[in-house]
Amino acid sequence: MNKQQHHKMVLEKTHPSGAEEWHCPICGRRFLMKWPPAYEMIILEPGDQYARHSGSKGGLQIGPVQLARGDTEIDEVSEESLRPWIRALDDLNLDW
């Protein structure tokens, strides 16, 4: 089994729009990252798509998505505990 390579992304620059340009010096992967509320990631150069990429900025670390299976069952959620969330969604006046 091949061990997946790990590459560290480097923040190249922040554009006037606020989008950040990240670059991998090992494989050439390059993307633009726009953070919430208008989150968007635009791949400029894919580089090694099989390598794990991570990077950090100001103490914040980004890395690959990791999935884990929990060993505990999820308890049923009561309507009462959801009431604040339901009110918040109603306040947004979303057109479902």
Describe the overall structure.
The strands form 2 sheets. The chain has a 4-stranded antiparallel beta sheet with strand order 2-3-4-5, with no helix packed on it. A 3-stranded mixed beta sheet has the order 1-6-7, with no helix packed on it. The model has no long low-confidence stretch (mean pLDDT 81). It has a domain at 1-53. The N and C termini lie far apart (46 Å). It is α+β, with helices and mostly antiparallel strands and 96 residues long. The relative contact order is 0.17. The protein has 1 helix and 7 strands, in the order βββββββα. The protein is extended, with a radius of gyration of 19 Å. Helix content is 14%, strand content 33%.
Cα-atom radius of gyration? 19 Å
Distance between the ends: 46 Å
- The shape is extended
The helix content, as a percent range, equals 10-25%
The unreliable regions are: none
SSE string: EEEEEEEH
Major sheet size, sense and barrel closure: 4 strands, antiparallel
Strand content: 25-35%
Total helices: the number is: 1
Q: How does the helix and strand content classify structurally?
A: alpha+beta
